[in-house]
């Protein structure tokens, strides 16, 4: 029967205590980052609350379209880019929603005197009727929640989420600037016979920061 040599046995012994080091390191990192844990917890609650709201008073609105209809109801006719800026999303995403709402007869596209190539989006009578019906149910829904929270609590929560949204928007803006800067760092010089040369632009970070969220909550 094979017996391990003394040299082999001794070499295996000291390695055992080292195995616990990574586990202790992870535990230490978690306990020393209460801010990170609290932030992830907040994000999780925001997503969960948004999902619950989708099954609440606004559930009768077409999926992903309620916000667009409400903007048109509140502000009147708007262009697709204007709606996109209001919703903090891309023009392409809003265009898809607008096309679907138009097929359902809830909105219509009209000529825009200020911009011939950007039509105005406005509610139809069918769309106004749908929002009126949903509005009644929404009011009952909000009244049922109002008795459980004080105005101060709700204002404080809204203020926190507003600041968080602003921080995420600024983070996204910085990411776009960094990406644009990286595209300018390398150009092809006609005088160099087509060879690539490095062109370092002023005020452009050389190292791209980690601008993406390190987790997916959706």
Any idea what the CATH architecture of the domain at 66-166 is?
A: Orthogonal Bundle
Measured by DSSP, the beta-strand proportion falls in: 5-15%
Structural class: mainly alpha
Name of the CATH first level of the domain at 66-166: Mainly Alpha
Helix count equals 8
Helix fraction by DSSP (H/I, runs of at least 4): 55-70%
Name the poorly predicted regions. 7-30, 196-218
What would you call the shape? flat
Q: Characterize the main sheet.
A: 3 strands, antiparallel
- In round numbers, the mean pLDDT is 75
Protein described:
- With 218 residues, the protein is mostly helical.
- It has a domain at 66-166: Winged helix-like DNA-binding domain superfamily/Winged helix DNA-binding domain (Arc Repressor Mutant, subunit A, Orthogonal Bundle).
- The protein has helices spanning 6-12, 21-31, 34-54, 66-75, 80-87, 91-103, 125-146, 151-185; strands at 78-79, 107-110, 120-123, 186-188, 196-198.
- The strands form two sheets. A three-stranded antiparallel β-sheet has the order 1-3-2. The chain has a two-stranded antiparallel ribbon with strand order 4-5.
- Strand 4 and strand 5 form a beta hairpin.
- The termini are far apart.
- Residues 7-30 and 196-218 have low confidence and may be disordered.
Task: Please provide a brief summary of the model.
The protein has 218 residues and is mainly alpha-helical. It has helices at residues 6-12, 21-31, 34-54, 66-75, 80-87, 91-103, 125-146, 151-185; strands at 78-79, 107-110, 120-123, 186-188, 196-198. The chain has a domain at 66-166: Winged helix-like DNA-binding domain superfamily/Winged helix DNA-binding domain (Arc Repressor Mutant, subunit A, Orthogonal Bundle).
């Amino acid at each position: 029967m094979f017996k391990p040599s003394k040299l082999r046995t001794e070499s295996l012994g000291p390695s055992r205590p080292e195995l616990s080091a990574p586990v202790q390191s992870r535990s230490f990192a978690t306990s020393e980052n209460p801010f990170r844990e609290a932030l992830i917890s907040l994000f999780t609650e925001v997503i969960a609350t948004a999902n619950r709201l989708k099954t609440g008073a606004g559930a009768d609105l077409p999926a992903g379209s309620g916000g667009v209809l409400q903007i048109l109801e509140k502000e009147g006719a708007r262009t697709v880019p204007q709606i996109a800026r209001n919703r903090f999303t891309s023009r392409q995403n809003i265009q898809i929603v607008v096309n679907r709402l138009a097929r359902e007869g809830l909105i219509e596209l009209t000529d825009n005197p200020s911009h011939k190539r950007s039509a105005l989006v406005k509610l139809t009578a069918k769309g106004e009727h749908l929002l009126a019906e949903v509005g009644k149910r929404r009011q009952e829904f909000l009244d049922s929640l109002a008795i459980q929270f004080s105005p101060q609590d709700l204002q404080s929560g809204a203020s926190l989420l507003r600041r968080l949204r602003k921080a995420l928007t600024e983070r996204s803006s910085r990411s776009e600037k960094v990406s644009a800067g990286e595209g300018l760092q390398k150009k092809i010089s006609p005088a160099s016979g087509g060879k690539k040369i490095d062109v370092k632009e002023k005020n452009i970070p050389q190292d791209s920061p980690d601008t993406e969220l390190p987790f997916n909550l959706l």
